[in-house]
Amino acid sequence: MTQTIPESFLGVGYTSHRAGLPLEAVRFHVPQPSADQVLIRVAASSLNPLEYKLADLNFMGRTPPVALGLDLAGVVIAVGHAVGGVDVGDTVTAMADLNGDGGWVATSGNKDVGGYALARQFLTVHKPASLSFRDAAALPMCFLSAFAGLYPAAQAGDTVYIPGGGGGVGHLAVQMAARALGAGSVISSGSTPESIALARQSGAHHVFDYKRDDIPAEIAKLTGGRGVDLVFDATYSEHSFVEAAKTVRRGGSWIVLGVGPGKTTRLAETRSPVSTILAERAAKHVNVNLLRYFSEPATLDSEARAFLQRGMALAMEWAEQGLVCRN
Fold this sequence. Notes:
Blueprint: E1 8-14, E2 24-29, E3 37-46, H1 49-57, E4 66-67, E5 71-79, E6 91-95, E7 107-108, E8 111-112, E9 115-120, E10 124-126, H2 133-137, H3 140-150, E11 159-162, H4 168-180, E12 185-190, H5 193-201, E13 206-209, H6 215-222, E14 228-233, H7 238-245, E15 248-257, H8 274-280, E16 284-288, H9 291-295, H10 302-320
Helix pairs in contact: 3-4, 3-10
């Protein structure tokens, strides 16, 4: 099958250092895939908070203009010579490299004028026919973030606490724990009626208001003083880190997405009591930081690539089964 590939497309991104929002439209050349890449004609692409930060801070040192829209779904129009299992014409969901251009596009009136993006083969999976391009494109980055924290650690029957269950990563983590990984009880928290409702809708059995409730005390009541088996915290909040660490049972696991305690400000590292709290409980502290995975995928070993590809495949499988969805 042959596809007509234009020389350029009208993308959306940032055009100068520390540009921030609003983003701008700029014309980009359509790239050619390297050996392990696929070129995708983008049908839908989402925009994540990490991309806002890229636009605002350009912390990866890219030379603008940079097209955003790194989570995407569309049709494969070209493949590298080492690619197998994905062919031209396939409908796929993928995640582009953070150090490459995404596929978010400008529009002409009400007509989408098209976008193109490269993705690594191991971050490209077939899209189920029952899943829309839009719904598929909303999943990769947030799903993989929740997957990397929970999939290796959560056991069937565990009591799990996921602060911020109404957040982008948080509500997927709640769904994953409650519906796909067989947690015995999922506890979450939020600060607004909307976030609390979303955490409940996502499958949390108990949801607390972290501005009003003493969550460690409430969780102690729910667990008979034992604490939870596992915490997965993707809030990037030092206050949340401290309070969540107090809920872990002796010998349990506290898993944080990102740089972790004491490092939530970009200006200075602060002293955090989290390590002491966890040590008193002989609890495991695990940092899940996927920035290098997303920004330097060419450097990953076969085990890391297989893990991420498994995550992408399960995102599609669980979404098709109705176990997870991005709200």
